[in-house]
Specification:
Length: 473
């Protein structure tokens, strides 16, 4: 056994855990048992655990130890445990989509992302809780889940963010080294920002959605949530690639490049901090983050948002695609089993959208995409706070809290561009704030390298929530 304690191992990055495994300072079976214990003991505390997978995990860990013993450990993830958001199919293991109507749902196959991590030698220790049906109907409250509201390990009276709530909570609490999340419109960036972890939303089509619950086919992305940008890079390398079972999959692979440049051009997209809860503190932290990046040698200047009604366009397209994917369910009696009233009403409202509504939105989307991609003729990446303010309280009405506020997540929803959210400090209540780097299509290496530069100059991503002191050591 290594000199590191169980608690220290719980908060060690996936990349460093891989090094410990390859150095044979710990075995994958030992590491897997440690994280199974942490996730089973404390996952329910944060409403983060959907299903523990001990038999599968230990079987995969034994296989990983054999690979390491034989020197066949090409991926840095060999033997490292992880958790998967519960909208990803897992053969013979419940996949409930966070929704009461699907509590007994079991598939006989694995999602593509789960299968690719298995092939890379990673160890799946559990399915992680989520907002019901990924929140596509426009849920009103954090409690919109079969498993209850995602609780933030920094403060159990605050939300961990949706819809990848369990993934965010489990990573920051040291219950899994990394997790798979998904984003249609903010569902990786939001919990990453609220929980103070690093989350990567890939370019649309780079990671196969085969075996994942469909929400909106032209917006859904699957990506890693981890302790660092470097961790996210290695996970993306493992899960990216063409898949004929996903019609949107592109014929590309991703090779993580860690060599850092210092001449990146960053464009600051302005946000309206005035009167927003936590606006002043977010602006202060963001300005300090900009100073850190400038001192690191990056070139930073002002950018402008192209003038479009982003939220209206995105909501129309999202609603039409959800209605097409889930019409039978929405029209059925099972809709009433959902937890959140706003979610039910929103899904029903989507059935009233017309072909003309969708056609207008799709035309505007083309214009938005052209304008957004045009910004990358001047900039290598765009930077904004991931969100304005800290994690909200559990009784917050999300429809009024977020409303039509602008954030970088809408760029991913409409233009399909990638983004990386990293911790950038804390707000007045001691809760994390997030910083986002948005890149052009398939420029994940650019935003990952910028994130790595920032994380080498700061230690926000090493901070632990106070609950870690109460976890098993």
């Amino acid at each position: 056994m290594p000199s590191l304690s169980a608690d220290e191992l719980g908060f060690t990055s996936a990349t460093e855990l891989g090094r410990l495994l390859r150095a044979k300072r710990i075995s994958s079976v030992e590491l897997t048992r440690l994280f199974l214990d942490r996730l089973s003991s404390h996952g329910p505390r944060f409403n983060a655990l959907a299903e523990l997978t001990p038999e599968l995990a230990l079987r995969q860990a034994r296989q990983a130890d054999l690979l390491i013993k034989r020197g066949r450990n090409a991926s840095p993830l060999v033997g490292v445990p992880y958790g998967a958001k519960d909208l990803l199919a897992t053969k013979g293991i419940p996949t409930r989509w966070g929704a009461p109507p699907y509590r007994d749902q079991v598939f006989n196959y694995d999602a593509a992302a789960v299968r690719r991590l298995r092939d890379a030698g990673a160890v799946l220790i559990g399915k992680l809780a989520m907002v019901e049906l990924a929140g596509g109907g426009g849920y009103h409250y954090p409690s919109a889940s079969l498993h209850g509201p995602g609780l933030n390990p920094w403060n159990l009276n605050r939300w961990s963010g949706g819809s990848s709530s369990g993934s965010g909570s489990a990573v920051v609490a040291g219950l899994v080294p990394y997790a798979l999340g998904s984003e249609t419109w903010g569902s990786i960036v939001t919990p990453s920002s609220y929980c103070g972890i690093t989350g990567l939303r890939p370019t649309i089509g780079l990671v196969s959605r085969s075996g994942a619950m469909e929400l909106a086919w032209s917006m859904d992305k699957i990506g890693p949530m981890a302790r660092s940008a470097e961790d996210c890079g290695w996970v993306l390398q493992a899960i990216a690639g063409y898949d004929p079972r996903d019609s949107s999959s592109v014929r590309r692979t991703f090779v993580f490049q860690r060599r850092l440049r210092r001449d990146y051009r960053l464009g600051v997209l302005p946000l309206d901090y005035k009167d927003a809860p936590g606006g002043a503190e977010t602006e202060k932290a963001f300005n300090e983050a900009v100073r850190v990046l400038r001192r690191a040698g990056l070139k930073i200047s002002h950018a402008e948002w192209p003038d479009f009604p982003y939220s209206d366009i995105a909501r129309t397209i999202l609603g039409a695609e959800i209605a097409a994917a889930h019409e039978k369910f929405i029209r059925s009696d099972r809709l009433s089993e959902l937890v959140d009233t706003g979610q039910k009403e929103g899904l029903q409202r989507y059935l009233t959208l017309t072909a003309a509504d969708l056609a207008r939105a799709e035309k505007q989307r083309v214009e938005v995409t052209r304008a957004i991609l045009g910004l990358f003729e001047r900039f290598d990446a765009l930077i904004t706070p991931s969100l304005i303010g800290e994690a909200v309280t559990l009784d917050t009405n999300l429809s009024t809290r977020f409303g039509r506020s602008r954030s970088g997540s809408v760029l991913g929803a409409l233009a399909g561009v990638p983004a990386l959210s990293v911790p950038m400090g804390f707000g007045p209540n001691g809760l994390p704030l997030g910083l986002s780097f948005t890149g052009s299509l398939f420029n994940e290496n650019t935003i990952l390298q910028i994130g790595m530069i920032y994380q080498r100059k700061t230690d926000w991503h090493h901070r632990r929530p106070p609950v870690h002191q109460q976890l098993p050591v």
